[in-house]
Amino acid sequence: MSSEMEDLYQDIILDHNKRPRNYRPLPLATHHADGNNPMCGDEIDLYLVVKDGVIEEVTFQGQGCAISKASASLLTERLTGASVAEAHAAFKDVMDLLKDTSREADLAEDGDMAALSGVRKFPARIKCATLAWHALEAALTGEAEASTE
Ligand code: ZN
Questions:
Q1: What is the pLDDT of residue 1?
Q2: Are 34 and 48 in contact (CB under 8 A)?
Q3: How far is the CA of 65 from the centre of ligand 1 (A)?
Q4: What distance in Å separates the CA atoms of residue 55 and residue 83, rounded to the nearest whole number?
Q5: Å from CA of 85 to ligand 1 middle
Q6: Do strands 42-51 and 31-37 pair parallel, antiparallel, or not at all (unpaired)?
Q7: Which segments in the chain show pLDDT lower than 50?
Q8: Domain 3-141: which topology?
Q9: What is the pLDDT of residues 1-23, one digit of tens each?
Q10: Which residues have CB atoms below 5 A from the ion given as ligand 1?
Q11: Which phi and psi angles does 109 have, rounded to 5°?
Q12: Is the pTM of this model over 0.85?
């Protein structure tokens, strides 16, 4: 990966950390899960409004490092308006992106989500990046809590 790409990925993460998208509670949420990453101290509360198999709204709140917040912010941007099936597929995509080092992320294909691939260089931080996604899976499958453990 070129250093220009790394700079770009870092800019995207920092931007989402500084100005997290959809950062608010959702009183009318139909689905909710708390995500906890004790390794880093990240806590993400994820809220969804799911109607007829479509995620109409997804928001989050929480405390944590830049990577955990940016990943949650990216998740909300990616999944607003997506179907539940697309959300499960996106979860799998993110896991592959973070664990399969042979896969070269493509910004054109993955949009800002590709920035998460920059985390691969820091294995201790992968759980920070996957936390919101584990919370998503937990919320969609009806579990109230998600842990990266
Ligand atoms: Zn973290």
A1: 60
A2: no
A3: 4
A4: 6
A5: 27
A6: antiparallel
A7: none
A8: Sufe protein. Chain: A (3.90.1010)
A9: 677 878 889 999 999 999 999 99
A10: 40, 42, 65, 68, 128
A11: -85, -45
A12: yes
pLDDT tens for each residue of 111-125: 888 899 889 888 899
Q: Which tokens sit at 66?
A: 């830049």
CA of 102 to the centre of ligand 1 (A): 24
53 alpha carbon to ligand 1 midpoint, in Å?
31
C-alpha distances in angstroms, 6 versus 1, 3, 12, 116, 132? 7, 5, 10, 11, 22
Beta partners for residue 23, in sequence order? 60
User: Could you tell me if 55 and 29 are in contact, meaning their C-beta atoms sit under 8 angstroms apart?
Assistant: no
What local confidence, expressed as pLDDT, does residue 18 receive?
97
Q: Which amino acid is at 92?
A: K
Task: Give the Å distance between the CA of 26 and the centre of ligand 1.
Answer: 23
Total residue length of the chain: 149
